[in-house]
Every structure is written in C-alpha cells, then in structure tokens.
Amino acid sequence: MLHNLDEASGNDAKNRRDLPINLGKYKLIRELSHGGAGIVYEGEDLILERRVAVKLLPLDRADASARSRLLAEARAAARLNHPNAVAVYDAGEDPSGLYIAMELIHGTSAHAAIRKNGPFSWPRATRIAVEVCQGLSAAHAAGMIHRDIKPANIMLADAGRPESTSANTVPQSGSAPVVENLAYRPWAKLADFGLSRSLQFTTNVTLDGQVAGTPNYMSPEQIRGEQLDERTDIYSLGATYFTLLTGHFPYERDGVIQTLFAHCSAAPPDPQQWDSTLPIACSAIIARAMAKEPRDRFRSVENLLVELRSLLATRDVGGAEFQQVPLEKDSTVSATSDSRAEISTLDDSPAAITPQSIRTGFSRQNSSARIMPAILIAVSLLALFTVLLVINRQPRTRSIPGGDLVAELDLQPEVKAISPPPALAPIGMQIERAWGIGQDGSVKTNGLMELMRIRFCPDHRTLAWGISEGEKHQGRLTLFDIERRDVIDMYTDETPYSGFNCVAFPSDHIVLLACNSKVITYDRRTHVVTTLMTFSDGSPESIDVSPDGRRLAVSVFEWSGGGRVELHDLILGSSPPLVASKRQVHQGYSKSVRCVIFSGTGEHIASAGTDGIVLLCDGFTGIKSQEFHLPPLQGEQEGIGHCVAFSPDSQLLAAGGRPRAVLWNVKTGAQQVLPEEHRREIMSLAFTQDGACLATGSTDGIRFWNVKRGSQIGANLDGHGGNVISGLVFTADNSMLISCGYDSSIRFWNLTQPGRKLTGL
Amino acid sequence: MSTILALDQITTRWSQIGDPLRFVMLYSQAIRAYLIALLGDGHAAEEACQEFLATFLKRGLDRAAPDRGRFRDYLKVSVRNTAISLLRRKYPQPVDPVVFEALATRDADDTWTREWQRVILEKAWRYLEAHERTAPASLYFTVLRLSVDHPEESSEQLAMQATLQTQRPINAAAFRKQLSRARMQFAQLIIAEVAQTLGNDSRFDLTEELAELGLLIYVQEYLP
User: How many CA atoms lie within 13 A of B197 on its CB side?
Assistant: First the structure.
C-alpha cells in the first residue's frame, strides 16, 4: 500500500534536534512531527495564551534568498482566512531558525489516515476534495498558488473536537465544543500554503535524481520548470484525489525520475483500475484535472468544485453509495492527441468529448450483473448521466456595452424550442391600453404585486409576473407575450397565502416560483408543479438562477426577524428537479434580505438587505468577497436596501438605497453615489441591455441615469399614481421599459418617444 | 516571459543544454509515443521508458561526440536502442538483425516526427497563454487560438468571439493587429525551441529541421 508515502521525510536524523524551549513568544511543549520541510511542535502563545502549532525550518536548508521568499509567502498565507485552510498566525526568525506559528489542528493528515485505514470511501474522498477546493479557491482569489498539494498537506480535524481557530483558549477538560463557524463544520484543511515550495527554489531536479519534495503530485509544468498558474494546483489536487480514492500514488514507478516522466507523458490514471466500484465520474474528474496541458484541465478550481459537488449530489439522490459495473482492467483514458479525455464542464470551453471509457462504462452498466432496486438504478443513472452527459451549455446572452447583441447563444440546445403557444384567456388581468409604436401601454391585474420583480423569460419576449390574488392571497403566475400581447401560459395555486414573491427561469421551459414557505418548479411543457424546497423557519423572498442554470440563490426572510442567503446546486435533469449542496452565502442578517441576484457571468452573487448591507459573493462557493453599505439618511444609523442589479458586463453592481442609488465597481470596490434623490426608498432598478443606462424606481416615479457620467437623463416617468414601483425591466432592444407597482398595474413605457430616447450616452 | 528573440540572436543550445533532464521531460510524450509505435504495446513501452531513463541517468548526454547532429536524431537513436535492448532480453534466442532494423518503420518514424512537432507547438501555445495571463493587454493566445479553431470565420466574427471570451470590446481591426503580432511571436517561439536542438548554427540546417518537422508553414514568413 502506501509504505512508500514516507517519501523524503521521517528518517533524516539531521532534522532531529533537541527541543528548544522558546521560539520568540512561543513556548514549545512537545514535538508533533518532523519532515523534509522542518519540525512541527505544539506550542503555546505566551501572550495570547492559546495553543498553536509551530513549524521550525532548519537554517541549513535555506539560503538568504529562500529565507526572504519563505517569510514573504508566510505573510501572504497569513492573510488567508478560510475555514478550509490552516491559518498562519505569525512568522519570524530566531537563533534556532525560521519559524511559523499556525493553527493547531486536532486530527490527522489525510496521508496518515490512509496509511492507517486505507483509502477513503468515494463520498468521503470527494468531500475532502470539495473542502480542499474551497480553501484553494480562497487562496487563488488572494493571488496565491499552493504548489504543494498532497495528502500530507491536508489536515482532517477530528469530528467533535474543539478547534483552536474558534476557541482561542487552551482547551479545558469537559469544556463544551467550540461554536461552529458560519458555513459548516470544516473537516479538511489545506496546510503549508506555498511554504515548502519556497525551499524548492534552491534545488532542482538533477541528473542524479535528487529532487526536493515529493514527485508524486507534481504537475508537468512544475517538472519542466515552466511558468505556473492556478491550474498547477488543479493537477496536484486531481492526483491527490486519486490517492484518497485508491490509496495509491497516481504513478507508481521505481524511481523519482521515472515518476516525473510519467507525470509528463503517461495517460491520466484511472482510479477504477484499483477499485472498480468507484463512480465513473471519479475517473472523468481525475482525467480532466490531470490533463497534461493546463488549458485542457478545469479552467478554475471553482469549475472543479462544481463537478465534485455534482458527484456528491448523486449520492444524495441515490440515498446510498452508487455502485458501478467495472471497466476492463486495462481501460485507461488516453492522453494522446488522438483521443483527449474531456468531460462536461460549466465553462464556455468547446464542447467536451465524452471519453471512450465513459461510453464503455455506460454500455456495461446496461448489462450489469449487479442487482439493485430498479428505482434506485433509474434515479441514480439519470442523475449521474445528467452530470456527465455532454451539455453544450453557453452562458446566458448578455449584451456587450456599446453595441448590439453580438451573438445569439443557444441557452438550452438540448431542449426543443417551444412552438408558439396559443393565446389564453387573460384571467386576472386586463389590458387597459395597448402599446405600440410611440405609444405607452398598461395592464391592470387583479392582485397584489407587492414584492414582485417582473422578469423576462430567456426568450426576451415572454414576460412573467406573479400576484397574490383574492381574499385568500392565492398565487397566480402569468406568462405574457409582449409582442403578441397574449397570455400564453398561466398557473394558479389556490392554496391560501401562496402568492408568488419572485420568479426565475433556469431554462425556457422550467419556471421557479418563490412563494410562502417554499420554492416550486413549474414545467411549461407538462404543466407539472413540484416542490423544489421548503423552509421551516422562513419564506423565500427573492430567487435567482445562474446563467448556466445550475445554481440557485435564495434569500430567506426568517420569521424570527432576520434573513439569510442560500446557494444551492440545481439539478434540472432529474425528475423532479432537485437542489443539492447547500452553501450559506450569508446568514445573520439582522433584517430581511430583499433581493439576491447572479451576475451575467455567474461568477458573483449580490444581495441587499433592509439593514443596508450589500454583499458581493463568489457565485460558485458563496464566499463573501466584498461588503458594501448603503449610505443612511441623515440622522439614521443604517441604510435600507431593497434591490440590486449587475450591469450586463458584470463590472458594476447597483443597489437601491434610501433615497439614492449607489454603484460599485465589482473588481475595485470603488463607490459612486448617484446625486439625485428619490422621495422614498428605491424599490427597483434595472440596467439597459447595453449597460449604458440605469433606471431606478420609487414612489415618485422612474428616473434614468447615465452610468458613465453618473448623472440623470431626462424627466421622471410617473405612472403608478405615487405607489411604490416594485419591478423594472428593459426589453432586449432597449425600446421599452416595463414597470410594475403596488397599484397592481404593469406599465409599458415606450422609450422611442421623442424626449425619452436614451441617447447621447 | 522573455521578449521575442531576434533570429540572428538565436544561438545553438544543443551544446549548452544545462539541464538535459528537463529536455527529456519536455519531449517525454514523443519518447513514449515512439516506443509505443515501435513495440506495439503500452506496457512494453512503459518498461522501455523506465530503461531509457535509467540509462540516461547513468550516462547523461554524450557531450563528447564530435558530430552530435540534431538532438532529435540523437534522442531517437537512444530510444530505439532501448527498445532493441528490451526485445533482445525478451527474446534471447538469436534473431536476424534485419528484424530489429525493421523496427525503424516508417510508421514509427512518422510518429516520432509528429509527436516531436506536437511538443514544440504545445510549448509555444503554453508560453503564449502564459504571456497573456501576465500581460492581459496582449491577447495573442486568444486571437491565435480563435483563428486556428475557426479558420473559416471572418475577422469580424472572430473579433466578436474574442469580445465574448475576454469581456473586452475588440473590433476586427484590433483583432487583425493582435493576430499579426501573435503569429510572429508564435513563430519566434518555435524557431527558438528548434534551434536549441541543432548541433550547429547553420541557418540552412534550421530551415531544413523546421521543414522536416512540418513547422516551416508557421515560421516561413518570419525567416530572413
């Protein structure tokens, strides 16, 4: 098994030292381990009175340049604060050597765990990989490349034991477990960020085979001495995942140089060669992560993370570990140019080609000799097939600033286009005034549109809105073709208090509705309604779906008075649609979260709370990247936020406050407060499709803003009788603005009228 | 990333290879593919790779040979000799040497040349991409990749694609300008890599080598 995982560590007597008493402010208590990169002690911070891990690096291994590089990298790692990364507290020099003080983890490394107990089950191995991805994502976002990902650098915290990150106290016997962090209880933590790699600068692969560090997880570009980027970590993580699953190195050869040669030239290893029961997705993920060319790998660790989470979701769907029919033993995923192995991804890379081994695996599954419950097979196969099937998903169409829509991208090529539906009787509404060339129009509804944000279907001509109708506040969804001026679809939920708060379209034919204490799906083809998720402690106020249709963000109004935002993976291919892998984007809002939205690229999520806080978070992991605050009114403590919107190019984030709108640059965080004030809170806003103009709505009507200049354009539009304007959306050609309000009406503002043209921008 | 090398500044590196092992790692895929073509079996090729590396580690580069010629030829002969040694051990009874000479089949030779070419091209692509990541103002990798992947599309269409990919507006004129520079840099990278593997500084040999590798088409416009 893994006897050779001792690698270059452990037996070098030169690394053993007499235990120093103190290193700086740290009192050393006992030696925990020693290895090629130094000796690790348990210590106590005498000033802060907490237990830490102290790593002492032998001076004879670091020349002056390596020393300064090491300290620089330690300082960089210390800025990283993430539950899935071992925290670095301090670094310094002492007569004994260089030392680094880190978070003390009560647990074991993945390497030690495998040596003791063998490989992990695939769900556990995948969970470890997911958590490492999360830590790595934060590191990459901070501009760091780890460069030494391996099982020995993954710490597994003992379940149920307090961790020093939160306690900050020396554990007392019988003390209660530490309060968990915001997101979840982390199990895997990535250690040694770039630290050991600093020492590598002083040594190279040489002809006699001496190489610093382990060769078993090095990427080809590391071996060749080429420029590195984040994809190097993806390779090493793929190799580590292989070991977690199988208990073996990816390439087991007689010597170091032979191992390096295999990394550079051999096909990616197939874990099913060691364990034929592993899901085929494990092979596909490893094949992609360990592709020889960096551009053939996952474009980012977030993309890898999504695939890993999708794999874990299949286990949740099946309710049990998924069993696979074995492939032939010598079946490998070829790395030659004739048959590159690729799997489906979420990014906009060219359409992936399903590896031959996957096709083989599926055909073998049909003739499997294993007996499983038929329903379990059907559900599991459908979910897994959906994950792995080539899906040429493209990002939602977003206009490029300054020009017309440059490309019509297929949103759901695997779904047949819906043929023009027949008109339905306009129940619950009436067209008061038809709109046309140069004319405004209006529609009156029978219900309340208090919290509604009207939305276009992906076809950009079907307008959707939801109302609360009647004394019992029943919910009605209306889909309205604005070109034909026909109602083309309608769904009514007669359950009391089922009024629809928000609608989102993950695809042309699936509609998501937030209502009462649940999110439901409505299939326009079959008219089947299913419950996607329910909440026992609150009500979903706002929902949005990522452009690729695979993630769902929900803002939840907690009945206890607060709010939170959740991020879920959305699995539409299963029947019924499912959500999986919940991540808390933010919790602990003191007040409700009125709006949550994805950026056009899907890389960010923004949310606005009525406490005036606007959060910008990673669209894949939910990790917060920036926090903004809406300016309060004079004399008040905090602002109020009801709405947010991204510019079409995802560069700007706008939020409606009281009484001004604010713009932030997503990358730099630079803030611009629009000068003119509405009379009351801004409850709705929308960018034009080219991003040049922003519309804001409040009780005093609608204002238009030149985004670049930050100044108002033209006069206000007033048409909701002084009522709150709760929703705004531009048509794709910017010829019309559509608003809805508390007066239960929907207004169609024709922007081609003289005086209204948004020209000169 | 280093600046573009002027052609007349390229010197032969074959005699100055400071880290031969890195060279072997760089061309490892060509070595493996050649062995698979020679031996017809992936497992045997793996065994041969191990032997080749063991021998290479022992002897290193034969720097003393007066006429080393092209590194590519030198490496090919070394790899082929490894395959022959392996076969002789597996089949200890005397075999007509002609049989072993037949190992130098056209198919295997074509594989060697094709894979060597591919390594050089992939390295140039990697460097181009790395340059774009560190200097985002230049889109050499993006534009060149688009033009290669979509040869039938116009520069207007490609400019749209580049705009979508990079989220930066690029018009057709800017796209063509970037493409021209990208092609030049790509050519320089290829020339520099090939020059490193030649035994002398003769530009005639360089052109001949580029032609044999099928790389002349990428660089001819930029040769003096």
Answer: 25
What residues of chain A lie within 8 A of the CB of B112, using their CB? none
Q: pLDDT for A349-372, tens place per residue?
A: 333 323 333 233 323 233 333 444
User: Among A307, A337, A368, A326, which residue's Cα sits nearest to residue A133?
Assistant: A307
Among the partner residues A209, A227, A350, nearest to B130 by beta-carbon distance: A227
Element (H, E) at B9: none
**Candidate from B29, B149, B160 with C-beta closest to A406:** B160
Q: Is B1 inside a domain boundary?
A: no
Residue B113, in any domain of the structure: yes
ipTM: 0.88
Residue B31 contacts A where some CB pair is shorter than 8 Å: yes
Give residue B79's domain range.
7-222
In a domain, B2, yes or no: no
Specify whether the CB–CB gap between A619 and A605 falls below 8 A.
yes
Measure the CA–CA gap between A695 and A612, rounded to whole angstroms: 20
Does residue B206 sit within a domain? Answer: yes
Contact A591, A610 (CB under 8 A): yes
Torsion of CA B39, B44, B45, B51, to 10 degrees: -120
**SS3 for A399?**
coil
Count up the domains in chain B and report the number.
1
Residues of B in contact with A221 (CB under 8 A): 126
The answer to which of A149-163, A345-359, B79-93 has the lowest mean pLDDT is A345-359
Is B126 within 8 Å of A229 when comparing Cβ atoms?
no
With bands split at pLDDT 50, 70 and 90, how would you rate the model's confidence at A331?
A: very low
The model's pTM is: 0.54
* Distance (Å, whole) CA A518 – CA A512: 10
Min Cα–Cα distance to chain A from B66, Å: 22
Percent of chain B's residues with pLDDT above 90:
43
Partners of residue A648 in chain B, C-beta under 8 Å:
none
pLDDT-based confidence at A396, cuts 50/70/90? very low
For residue B196, the distance in angstroms to the closest alpha carbon of chain A comes to 16
**Is B49 in contact with A221 (Cβ distance < 8 A)?**
no
Chain segment B130-139, per-residue pLDDT in tens = 999 888 788 9
Average pLDDT over residues A318-336: 29
**Is-contact A736 A686, C-beta < 8 A?**
no
B51-69 residue pLDDT tens: 999 888 777 655 545 455 6
- The separation between the first and the last C-alpha atoms of chain B, rounded to the nearest angstrom, is 24
The pLDDT value given to residue A49: 92
Residues ≥6 apart with Cβ < 8 Å to A746: A442, A443, A445, A449, A454, A465, A738, A739, A740
Q: Which residues of A are catalytic?
A: 148
The 10s digit of each residue's pLDDT in A535-586 is 888 888 889 999 888 889 999 888 777 788 988 888 777 667 777 767 777 6
For residue A599, give how far its alpha carbon lies from the nearest alpha carbon of chain B (Å). 13
Q: Among A209, A335, A350, whose Cβ lies nearest the Cβ of B57?
A: A209
